[in-house]
Structure formats: C-alpha cells, structure tokens
Amino acid sequence: MEDTLTYAGAHPDEVRTTLTEFLDMDAALAEKVALETFTTEPNRGALETLADLAVQDGLLEEKPDLDALLD
Structure pTM? Predict the structure, then answer.
C-alpha cells in the first residue's frame, strides 16, 4: 500500500489518466479533480469518534478495543 501511495503521489498525471480510463471521466474534469494525499497510518482520533458514534447510534453494543484492533 505504501508503495502504491508513494507512486501515485509522484505520478499525478498517471492517476488522472486512470480516472479517465476506469471511471470514464472526461479528461478536462480529471484535470480539475483534487488529488488527496493518503497515509497508511490509522487516524486514531477519527476511529475513536466513529466508535463512539457507533455505540451512540446502537450499531455496536460496546466500544471496540481500539488498542487490540490497531496493534
């Protein structure tokens, strides 16, 4: 995953070409798309929030052990 993200970050023109080929996106639109930067590191704060909301909304009975999930 890290290799793929590194490659994509270094080759934005190829990423945009992929958008036109696999998503049938117009090339002019692909040029305007903001290419996000992703990481392979989990965002603990976001996961904490999602876990809290899942319990609050009744999707989970109890908050998951994020330490166990992220190790």
Answer: 0.58
- Provide the terminal-to-terminal Cα distance of the chain, rounded to the nearest Å: 18
Q: For 9-36, how does the pLDDT look when each residue is reduced to its tens digit (9 = 90+)?
A: 999 999 999 999 999 999 999 999 999 9
Contact criterion met (CB below 8 Å) for 34 and 1: no
Amino acid symbol at 63: K
CA 19 to chain centre: 16
Computed on alpha carbons and rounded to an integer, the radius of gyration of the chain in Å comes to 18
Cα–Cα distance, 38 to 46 (Å, whole number): 14
Q: From the centroid of its chain, how far is CA 16?
A: 17
